[in-house]
Specification:
- The protein contains eight helices and 13 strands.
- With about 260 residues, it is an alpha+beta fold.
- Strand 2 and strand 3 form a beta hairpin.
- The radius of gyration is 17 Å and the shape is globular.
């Protein structure tokens, strides 16, 4: 895929983040670069400031991605920056006397008519296409593992005591393992990237309604306000990416 192909992509992205109604510090972060086709949400975890350090290091690393020459180049750059960020988090942890620090990530990469989602943890990517909402990511959590094993139902998992325990992250002392799903873009696709501060309060039906009924700025604001009105027990971050002017296609593959 050549550089001309990437110019077929015309899109618009908006991001919002809020500390919520309970926490004193916002350890979430988001990244948007429409010119390079890179969008991401990070939800930091750790003690005071440690989670914010981790999510901020990932954001800073993504900011060094260059304009990609191909979809493969973009993927390679992204993975390299995440590896670099993990190394920096390890060093920061050592400087903080071994304090545990890490962050989830949910990222959307776009090039030409193609996309890839990469993630670790319970931040999510959704796609709204032709009025149908689809969760493209699968949570890396204890609760999701129990759902997959038919030990818990989806409804039970929402109130499971250890539902916030994640099984993958970019962090100190944690093996780095990103999951990937890829596919083709269509004009009119709308993607939502979000932290669990949103999905912990709003179900998919409510999220889909907010996404379908407004322009991206209003939709992002409505989603964030919806989570706050339902309690705002965690930091809340949303990024909405609207796709326009790309070759139609369908299908997705998972790695």
């Amino acid at each position: 895929m050549n550089q001309a192909a990437s110019e077929l992509l015309r899109g618009y992205a908006v991001g919002l983040t809020h500390v919520g109604r309970v926490r004193e510090e916002n350890q979430d972060a988001y990244f948007i670069d429409e010119s390079k086709g890179v969008f991401a949400v990070m939800d930091g975890a750790g003690g005071l400031q440690d989670g914010a350090i981790a999510s901020g290091l990932v954001k800073n690393a993504l900011n060094t991605i260059h304009v990609p020459r191909s979809a493969e180049d973009l993927l390679e750059q992204f993975e390299g920056r995440v590896i670099l960020a993990k190394e920096q988090i390890e060093h920061a942890s050592q400087r903080a006397n071994g304090a545990a620090m890490g962050t989830t990530i949910a990222a959307l990469l776009t090039f030409g008519g193609n996309f890839a989602c990469l993630w670790a943890g319970d931040s999510r990517v959704y796609r709204l296409r032709n009025g149908q909402l689809e969760q493209l990511t699968t949570d890396h959590t204890e609760a999701q593992e129990l759902v997959d094993q038919n030990v818990l139902t989806i409804e039970e998992a929402r109130t499971y005591a250890r539902r916030h325990i994640i099984t993958r992250a970019i962090g100190s002392g944690i093996d780095l393992e990103l999951e990937l799903v890829s596919g083709n873009l269509r004009p009119g696709d709308r993607f939502l990237l979000c932290s669990d501060g949103l999905t912990g309060h709003l179900d998919d039906t409510t999220i889909g309604t907010f996404l379908m009924n407004a322009a991206p700025n209003s939709s992002a604001r409505d989603l964030l306000n919806g989570a706050l009105e339902c309690g705002g027990s965690d930091n809340v971050t949303v990024v909405i990416v609207d796709i326009d002017g790309v070759a139609a296609g369908e299908g997705a593959t998972r790695r």
